[in-house]
Design goal:
Strands 2-1-3-4 form a 4-stranded mixed beta sheet. It has a single domain, classed as Glutaredoxin, CATH 3.40.30. The chain is globular and about 35 Å long. The N and C termini lie close together (11 Å). The chain is built from 3 helices and 4 strands, in the order βαβαββα. By secondary structure, the protein is of the alpha+beta class.
């Protein structure tokens, strides 16, 4: 099972923080979904980010092309929930 996760972030430290939370969520789900694979894509260009959200100052997160978090830093538990929904 593959899930595509896009981190929309203009600044490298912000993308890094969100990526770490995404990877922590992936680790938390491995026991339940051992075959779960994530494709993590970082969207850095402002024009590309604006296709999905008007908020570009803070990071946003997409799971399987669905915008799940806009303009803030999501927590690991939130991301676990979104990834679990994507497996259904």
């Amino acid at each position: 099972m593959r899930i595509c996760v896009k981190i929309l972030g203009y600044k490298t430290p912000q993308r890094y923080a969100v990526r770490r939370a995404v990877l922590a969520a992936h680790d938390a789900l491995r026991a339940q979904f051992p075959d779960l694979q994530l494709d993590v894509i970082e969207v850095r260009q402002r024009a590309e980010m604006e296709k999905y959200t008007p908020v570009v100052i803070y990071p946003s997160l997409m799971v399987n092309e669905k915008l799940v978090c806009i303009g803030r830093f999501p927590g690991k538990d939130e991301i676990v929930g979104w990834l679990r929904q994507a497996t259904e």
